[in-house]
Design brief:
four-stranded antiparallel β-sheet; 3 helices; 8 strands
């Protein structure tokens, strides 16, 4: 009987936390599949391994040379004529088991907001220094040129992960 009550309480708590994570800002600004209400701004997964960064932060690359500083190997299929690479880094962690998965991006009041799922270690984990992060591709046309504030928050807990500022270059003129 006690275990049923505990399970029911845990389920209600999860439902309550899930409802709290879907606050007004998230439900009206972000879609659930990576698309933004801002025209042309979609966060797409890219197959890259983020470079190790000791400090938490957000960085963006608009060409292959900039991208080489953010990831271990720049993917051949990333078209910097239309795409920008955005990477979010959690910084140094003392154990294995940490992870990050970028979910969506949207422009909100002049700020690029990224929702990501941060995973924390569970159970017994190896005591080894790790540098978790994740990267995605954004359509450059959806980004306003100039200095752009960027913020990443967790999709489940709605907790702040990291913030930063990037400079988006002016679009290149068509020949």
């Amino acid at each position: 009987m006690t275990s049923r009550i505990l399970r029911a309480t845990a389920l209600l708590l999860l439902i309550g936390l899930g409802g709290a994570a879907c606050g007004t800002t998230q439900s009206t600004v972000f879609s659930s599949i990576g698309e933004s209400l801002a025209p042309g701004l979609t966060l797409r997964a890219v197959q890259v391994e983020p470079a190790e960064r000791e400090e938490a932060g957000i960085a963006m690359a608009f060409d292959a040379q900039e991208a080489a500083a953010l990831v271990v190997a720049v993917p051949d299929d990333l078209d910097f004529g239309t795409d920008a690479l955005v990477c979010v880094y959690l910084g140094e962690r003392p154990t294995a088991g940490w992870g990050l998965d970028l979910q969506t991006a949207s422009l909100v009041e002049g700020e690029l907001r990224i929702l990501a799922r941060e995973t924390r270690p569970r159970g017994t984990v190896e005591q080894v220094v790790t540098y978790p992060g994740d990267c995605g591709a954004l359509n450059r046309d959806g980004l306003p040129p100039g200095d752009l504030a960027v913020r990443a928050d967790d999709t489940i807990s709605d907790e702040f992960i990291v913030a930063g500022e990037v400079t988006v270059p002016e679009p290149e003129a068509a020949p």
